[in-house]
Protein backbone atom coordinates (compact mmCIF):
# COMPACT_ATOMS: atom_id res chain seq x y z
CA UNK A 1 0.00 0.00 0.00
CA UNK A 2 1.28 3.44 -0.98
CA UNK A 3 -0.22 5.76 1.62
CA UNK A 4 1.52 8.75 0.09
CA UNK A 5 -0.66 8.71 -3.04
CA UNK A 6 -3.63 6.73 -1.65
CA UNK A 7 -3.22 3.61 -3.81
CA UNK A 8 -3.21 -0.11 -3.14
CA UNK A 9 -1.93 -2.49 -5.80
CA UNK A 10 -1.90 0.39 -8.26
CA UNK A 11 -5.62 1.20 -7.85
CA UNK A 12 -6.90 4.29 -6.00
CA UNK A 13 -8.16 3.42 -2.52
CA UNK A 14 -11.61 4.87 -3.16
CA UNK A 15 -12.11 2.24 -5.87
CA UNK A 16 -11.56 -0.51 -3.29
CA UNK A 17 -14.09 1.14 -0.98
CA UNK A 18 -16.58 1.51 -3.83
CA UNK A 19 -16.16 -2.13 -4.88
CA UNK A 20 -16.66 -3.39 -1.32
CA UNK A 21 -19.76 -1.19 -1.00
CA UNK A 22 -21.12 -2.45 -4.33
CA UNK A 23 -20.76 -6.10 -3.33
CA UNK A 24 -22.35 -5.59 0.10
CA UNK A 25 -25.27 -3.66 -1.41
CA UNK A 26 -25.77 -6.36 -4.03
CA UNK A 27 -25.99 -9.03 -1.31
CA UNK A 28 -28.48 -6.95 0.66
CA UNK A 29 -30.70 -6.28 -2.34
CA UNK A 30 -30.72 -9.76 -3.84
CA UNK A 31 -34.20 -11.20 -3.82
CA UNK A 32 -34.53 -14.01 -1.33
CA UNK A 33 -31.42 -13.03 0.58
CA UNK A 34 -31.67 -14.15 4.21
CA UNK A 35 -30.72 -10.72 5.59
CA UNK A 36 -32.08 -8.07 3.22
CA UNK A 37 -31.44 -4.36 3.49
CA UNK A 38 -33.82 -2.54 5.87
CA UNK A 39 -35.82 -0.19 3.64
CA UNK A 40 -37.95 1.22 6.46
CA UNK A 41 -36.90 2.85 9.71
CA UNK A 42 -35.94 0.25 12.30
CA UNK A 43 -36.12 0.81 16.03
CA UNK A 44 -32.95 2.46 17.26
CA UNK A 45 -30.56 0.77 19.69
CA UNK A 46 -29.58 4.17 21.14
CA UNK A 47 -33.23 5.24 21.42
CA UNK A 48 -34.05 1.98 23.22
CA UNK A 49 -31.28 2.73 25.74
CA UNK A 50 -32.73 6.23 26.23
CA UNK A 51 -36.16 4.66 26.67
CA UNK A 52 -34.87 2.35 29.43
CA UNK A 53 -33.27 5.34 31.19
CA UNK A 54 -36.51 7.31 30.94
CA UNK A 55 -38.58 4.41 32.27
CA UNK A 56 -36.11 4.00 35.14
CA UNK A 57 -36.63 7.69 36.00
CA UNK A 58 -40.37 7.13 36.07
CA UNK A 59 -40.26 3.96 38.14
CA UNK A 60 -37.54 5.10 40.57
CA UNK A 61 -37.79 8.91 40.75
CA UNK A 62 -35.17 10.53 42.92
CA UNK A 63 -32.75 7.71 42.19
CA UNK A 64 -32.44 8.11 38.43
CA UNK A 65 -33.26 11.73 37.73
CA UNK A 66 -35.35 14.18 39.74
CA UNK A 67 -33.06 14.25 42.78
CA UNK A 68 -33.71 17.94 43.36
CA UNK A 69 -37.47 17.87 42.85
CA UNK A 70 -39.50 19.12 45.83
CA UNK A 71 -42.06 16.57 47.06
CA UNK A 72 -44.87 19.01 46.29
CA UNK A 73 -43.74 19.07 42.65
CA UNK A 74 -43.15 15.33 42.26
CA UNK A 75 -46.44 14.68 40.45
CA UNK A 76 -45.78 17.47 37.94
CA UNK A 77 -42.24 16.26 37.35
CA UNK A 78 -43.36 12.67 36.76
CA UNK A 79 -46.09 13.82 34.37
CA UNK A 80 -43.43 15.57 32.27
CA UNK A 81 -41.21 12.47 32.30
CA UNK A 82 -44.20 10.30 31.38
CA UNK A 83 -44.98 12.55 28.41
CA UNK A 84 -41.40 12.34 27.14
CA UNK A 85 -41.38 8.59 27.69
CA UNK A 86 -44.64 8.20 25.78
CA UNK A 87 -43.29 10.17 22.79
CA UNK A 88 -40.12 8.09 22.64
CA UNK A 89 -41.92 4.79 23.19
CA UNK A 90 -44.69 5.42 20.64
CA UNK A 91 -42.11 6.35 17.99
CA UNK A 92 -40.06 3.21 18.56
CA UNK A 93 -43.12 0.95 18.58
CA UNK A 94 -44.38 2.55 15.37
CA UNK A 95 -41.00 1.84 13.75
CA UNK A 96 -41.28 -1.82 14.79
CA UNK A 97 -44.72 -2.22 13.23
CA UNK A 98 -43.78 -0.28 10.09
CA UNK A 99 -40.75 -2.48 9.49
CA UNK A 100 -42.85 -5.62 9.85
CA UNK A 101 -45.42 -4.27 7.39
CA UNK A 102 -42.72 -3.60 4.80
CA UNK A 103 -41.26 -7.06 5.27
CA UNK A 104 -44.68 -8.55 4.48
CA UNK A 105 -45.01 -6.25 1.42
CA UNK A 106 -48.04 -4.56 2.98
CA UNK A 107 -48.93 -0.90 2.88
CA UNK A 108 -50.14 0.20 6.31
CA UNK A 109 -51.19 3.67 7.44
CA UNK A 110 -51.89 2.67 11.03
CA UNK A 111 -48.38 2.10 12.36
CA UNK A 112 -48.23 5.47 14.08
CA UNK A 113 -51.61 4.96 15.73
CA UNK A 114 -50.58 1.47 16.80
CA UNK A 115 -47.43 2.94 18.33
CA UNK A 116 -49.44 5.48 20.31
CA UNK A 117 -52.02 2.91 21.42
CA UNK A 118 -49.44 0.42 22.67
CA UNK A 119 -47.34 3.14 24.32
CA UNK A 120 -50.38 4.48 26.17
CA UNK A 121 -51.31 0.96 27.30
CA UNK A 122 -47.82 0.52 28.76
CA UNK A 123 -47.88 3.90 30.52
CA UNK A 124 -51.18 2.89 32.15
CA UNK A 125 -49.45 -0.24 33.54
CA UNK A 126 -46.50 1.61 35.09
CA UNK A 127 -48.13 2.23 38.51
CA UNK A 128 -48.71 -1.52 38.89
CA UNK A 129 -45.15 -2.27 37.73
CA UNK A 130 -43.87 0.19 40.34
CA UNK A 131 -45.70 -1.80 43.04
CA UNK A 132 -44.16 -5.05 41.83
CA UNK A 133 -40.69 -3.51 41.69
CA UNK A 134 -41.07 -2.25 45.26
CA UNK A 135 -41.64 -5.88 46.25
CA UNK A 136 -38.60 -6.96 44.20
CA UNK A 137 -36.46 -4.40 46.07
CA UNK A 138 -37.73 -5.67 49.41
CA UNK A 139 -37.10 -9.30 48.37
CA UNK A 140 -33.49 -8.42 47.51
CA UNK A 141 -32.98 -6.63 50.83
CA UNK A 142 -34.57 -9.44 52.83
CA UNK A 143 -32.68 -12.12 50.89
CA UNK A 144 -29.17 -10.69 51.07
CA UNK A 145 -27.54 -9.93 54.44
CA UNK A 146 -24.94 -7.84 52.58
CA UNK A 147 -27.62 -5.31 51.59
CA UNK A 148 -27.48 -2.29 53.88
CA UNK A 149 -30.53 -0.44 52.58
CA UNK A 150 -33.18 -0.30 49.87
CA UNK A 151 -31.16 2.57 48.37
CA UNK A 152 -28.18 0.26 47.91
CA UNK A 153 -30.35 -2.35 46.20
CA UNK A 154 -31.84 0.18 43.77
CA UNK A 155 -28.52 1.78 42.90
CA UNK A 156 -26.15 -1.17 42.79
CA UNK A 157 -27.89 -4.54 42.31
CA UNK A 158 -27.67 -5.77 38.69
CA UNK A 159 -30.47 -8.25 39.36
CA UNK A 160 -32.90 -5.41 40.04
CA UNK A 161 -31.80 -3.52 36.92
CA UNK A 162 -32.39 -6.61 34.79
CA UNK A 163 -35.75 -7.35 36.42
CA UNK A 164 -36.93 -3.77 35.92
CA UNK A 165 -36.24 -3.97 32.19
CA UNK A 166 -37.79 -7.44 32.04
CA UNK A 167 -41.04 -6.32 33.67
CA UNK A 168 -41.49 -3.50 31.14
CA UNK A 169 -40.36 -5.58 28.15
CA UNK A 170 -42.68 -8.42 29.20
CA UNK A 171 -45.71 -6.12 29.06
CA UNK A 172 -44.73 -5.06 25.53
CA UNK A 173 -44.23 -8.73 24.62
CA UNK A 174 -47.72 -9.56 25.91
CA UNK A 175 -49.07 -6.67 23.83
CA UNK A 176 -47.40 -8.37 20.82
CA UNK A 177 -45.13 -5.45 20.03
CA UNK A 178 -42.44 -6.82 17.68
CA UNK A 179 -38.66 -6.36 18.03
CA UNK A 180 -38.58 -3.76 20.84
CA UNK A 181 -39.09 -6.09 23.86
CA UNK A 182 -36.21 -8.31 22.78
CA UNK A 183 -34.02 -5.32 21.98
CA UNK A 184 -34.63 -3.95 25.49
CA UNK A 185 -33.86 -7.30 27.14
CA UNK A 186 -30.59 -7.61 25.21
CA UNK A 187 -29.55 -4.12 26.33
CA UNK A 188 -30.15 -5.24 29.92
CA UNK A 189 -28.23 -8.45 29.18
CA UNK A 190 -25.23 -6.47 27.94
CA UNK A 191 -25.44 -4.20 30.99
CA UNK A 192 -25.82 -6.85 33.69
CA UNK A 193 -24.83 -10.25 32.29
CA UNK A 194 -28.38 -11.45 33.05
CA UNK A 195 -30.37 -12.80 30.09
CA UNK A 196 -34.13 -12.81 30.71
CA UNK A 197 -36.31 -13.36 27.66
CA UNK A 198 -39.29 -10.96 27.72
CA UNK A 199 -41.63 -13.87 27.02
CA UNK A 200 -40.88 -15.52 30.37
CA UNK A 201 -43.59 -15.32 33.05
CA UNK A 202 -42.21 -14.22 36.43
CA UNK A 203 -44.17 -13.73 39.64
CA UNK A 204 -43.81 -11.27 42.48
CA UNK A 205 -40.90 -10.70 44.88
CA UNK A 206 -38.31 -12.09 42.46
CA UNK A 207 -34.64 -11.82 43.46
CA UNK A 208 -31.52 -12.59 41.44
CA UNK A 209 -28.44 -12.47 43.70
CA UNK A 210 -25.17 -11.43 41.99
CA UNK A 211 -26.70 -12.47 38.69
CA UNK A 212 -23.87 -12.80 36.18
CA UNK A 213 -24.55 -15.66 33.78
CA UNK A 214 -28.23 -16.18 34.65
CA UNK A 215 -30.33 -17.32 31.67
CA UNK A 216 -34.14 -17.43 31.74
CA UNK A 217 -35.69 -18.83 28.55
CA UNK A 218 -38.76 -17.59 26.70
CA UNK A 219 -41.34 -20.09 27.99
CA UNK A 220 -40.05 -20.25 31.57
CA UNK A 221 -42.71 -19.86 34.27
CA UNK A 222 -41.53 -18.60 37.67
CA UNK A 223 -43.84 -18.28 40.66
CA UNK A 224 -43.75 -15.85 43.59
CA UNK A 225 -40.88 -15.52 46.08
CA UNK A 226 -38.28 -17.25 43.89
CA UNK A 227 -34.56 -16.63 44.35
CA UNK A 228 -31.83 -17.37 41.79
CA UNK A 229 -28.07 -17.12 42.19
CA UNK A 230 -25.41 -16.44 39.57
CA UNK A 231 -24.86 -18.87 36.70
CA UNK A 232 -28.33 -20.44 36.82
CA UNK A 233 -29.73 -21.64 33.50
CA UNK A 234 -33.45 -22.21 32.98
CA UNK A 235 -33.22 -23.56 29.46
CA UNK A 236 -34.56 -25.88 26.79
CA UNK A 237 -33.76 -29.58 26.79
CA UNK A 238 -34.02 -29.96 23.02
CA UNK A 239 -35.43 -28.17 19.99
CA UNK A 240 -38.19 -30.18 18.25
CA UNK A 241 -38.35 -29.95 14.45
CA UNK A 242 -41.15 -30.45 11.96
CA UNK A 243 -41.17 -32.82 8.97
CA UNK A 244 -39.16 -30.32 6.94
CA UNK A 245 -36.47 -29.98 9.58
CA UNK A 246 -37.49 -26.48 10.70
CA UNK A 247 -37.64 -25.64 14.40
CA UNK A 248 -41.10 -25.93 15.94
CA UNK A 249 -41.91 -22.65 17.63
CA UNK A 250 -44.53 -21.73 20.22
CA UNK A 251 -44.12 -24.82 22.40
CA UNK A 252 -43.30 -24.96 26.13
CA UNK A 253 -39.53 -25.53 26.06
CA UNK A 254 -38.37 -24.16 29.40
CA UNK A 255 -39.00 -25.24 33.01
CA UNK A 256 -41.51 -24.12 35.62
CA UNK A 257 -40.41 -23.00 39.09
CA UNK A 258 -43.24 -22.91 41.61
CA UNK A 259 -43.54 -20.48 44.53
CA UNK A 260 -40.71 -20.21 47.05
CA UNK A 261 -38.05 -22.07 45.04
CA UNK A 262 -34.37 -21.25 45.58
CA UNK A 263 -31.77 -22.20 42.94
CA UNK A 264 -28.10 -21.90 43.87
CA UNK A 265 -25.14 -20.92 41.70
CA UNK A 266 -24.37 -22.85 38.54
CA UNK A 267 -27.48 -25.04 38.54
CA UNK A 268 -28.97 -26.01 35.17
CA UNK A 269 -32.67 -26.86 34.86
CA UNK A 270 -33.90 -27.88 31.41
CA UNK A 271 -37.10 -28.83 29.63
CA UNK A 272 -40.66 -27.63 29.21
CA UNK A 273 -42.06 -30.58 31.16
CA UNK A 274 -39.70 -30.03 34.09
CA UNK A 275 -41.34 -28.53 37.18
CA UNK A 276 -39.55 -27.63 40.41
CA UNK A 277 -42.12 -28.00 43.17
CA UNK A 278 -43.10 -25.33 45.65
CA UNK A 279 -40.50 -24.54 48.32
CA UNK A 280 -37.77 -26.74 46.85
CA UNK A 281 -34.07 -25.90 47.12
CA UNK A 282 -31.79 -26.73 44.19
CA UNK A 283 -28.12 -26.90 45.13
CA UNK A 284 -25.22 -25.47 43.18
CA UNK A 285 -23.96 -27.02 39.93
CA UNK A 286 -26.68 -29.68 39.66
CA UNK A 287 -28.17 -30.72 36.31
CA UNK A 288 -31.92 -31.34 36.33
CA UNK A 289 -34.10 -32.59 33.46
CA UNK A 290 -36.90 -34.20 35.48
CA UNK A 291 -39.52 -32.69 37.76
CA UNK A 292 -38.84 -32.32 41.48
CA UNK A 293 -41.63 -32.70 44.10
CA UNK A 294 -42.56 -29.83 46.41
CA UNK A 295 -40.33 -29.32 49.43
CA UNK A 296 -37.39 -31.22 47.96
CA UNK A 297 -33.71 -30.40 48.47
CA UNK A 298 -31.48 -31.45 45.55
CA UNK A 299 -27.73 -31.46 46.18
CA UNK A 300 -24.65 -33.07 44.64
CA UNK A 301 -22.53 -35.60 46.50
CA UNK A 302 -19.45 -33.94 48.00
CA UNK A 303 -16.55 -34.19 45.53
CA UNK A 304 -13.59 -36.46 46.20
CA UNK A 305 -11.04 -33.77 46.99
CA UNK A 306 -7.34 -34.55 47.29
CA UNK A 307 -4.83 -32.31 49.01
CA UNK A 308 -1.05 -32.35 48.85
CA UNK A 309 0.79 -30.80 51.77
CA UNK A 310 4.51 -30.06 51.70
CA UNK A 311 6.22 -30.64 55.04
CA UNK A 312 9.86 -29.91 55.73
CA UNK A 313 11.64 -33.03 57.05
CA UNK A 314 15.21 -32.20 58.11
CA UNK A 315 16.98 -31.18 54.88
CA UNK A 316 14.38 -32.58 52.47
CA UNK A 317 10.71 -32.09 51.64
CA UNK A 318 8.16 -34.78 52.32
CA UNK A 319 4.88 -34.76 50.32
CA UNK A 320 1.92 -36.03 52.28
CA UNK A 321 -1.31 -36.96 50.40
CA UNK A 322 -4.61 -37.06 52.22
CA UNK A 323 -8.33 -36.89 51.48
CA UNK A 324 -11.34 -35.34 53.17
Tell me what portion of residues adopts beta-strand conformation: 15-25%
CATH C-level of the largest domain: Mainly Alpha
Quote the CATH topology of the largest domain. Answer: serine acetyltransferase, domain 1
Low-confidence stretches: none
CATH superfamily of the largest domain: serine acetyltransferase, domain 1
Please tell me what the overall shape is: globular
Number of helices: 7
Strand order in the largest sheet: 3-6-9-12-15
- Summing up helix and strand content along with how strands pair, one would put the structural category as alpha/beta
Number of strands: 18
Radius of gyration: 26 Å
Provide structural commentary.
It is a single chain. The chain is α/β, with parallel strands linked by helices. It has helices spanning 13-29, 45-59, 74-103, 111-143, 150-156, 158-174, 180-192, and strands at residues 7-8, 11-12, 195-196, 201-202, 207-208, 215-216, 221-222, 227-228, 233-235, 256-257, 262-263, 268-270, 275-276, 281-282, 287-288, 297-298, 306-313, 316-323. It folds into two domains: 39-193, serine acetyltransferase, domain 1 (Orthogonal Bundle); 200-324, Hexapeptide repeat proteins (UDP N-Acetylglucosamine Acyltransferase, domain 1), CATH 2.160.10.10. The chain has seven helices and 18 strands. The strands form five sheets. Strands 3-6-9-12-15 form a five-stranded parallel sheet. It has a five-stranded parallel sheet with strand order 5-8-11-14-16. A four-stranded parallel sheet has the order 4-7-10-13, with no helix packed on it. Helix 2 packs across helix 7. The protein is globular. The mean pLDDT is 89.
Amino acid sequence: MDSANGTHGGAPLHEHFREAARRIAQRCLEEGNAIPAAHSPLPSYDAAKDLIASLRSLLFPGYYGGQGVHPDLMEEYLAEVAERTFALLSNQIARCFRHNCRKLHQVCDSCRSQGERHALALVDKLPRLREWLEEDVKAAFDGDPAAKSYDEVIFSYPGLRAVMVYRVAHELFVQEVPLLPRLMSEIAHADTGIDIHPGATIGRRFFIDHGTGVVVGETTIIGDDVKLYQGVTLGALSFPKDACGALVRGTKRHPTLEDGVTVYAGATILGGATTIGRGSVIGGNVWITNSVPAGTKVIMEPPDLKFKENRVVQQGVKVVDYQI
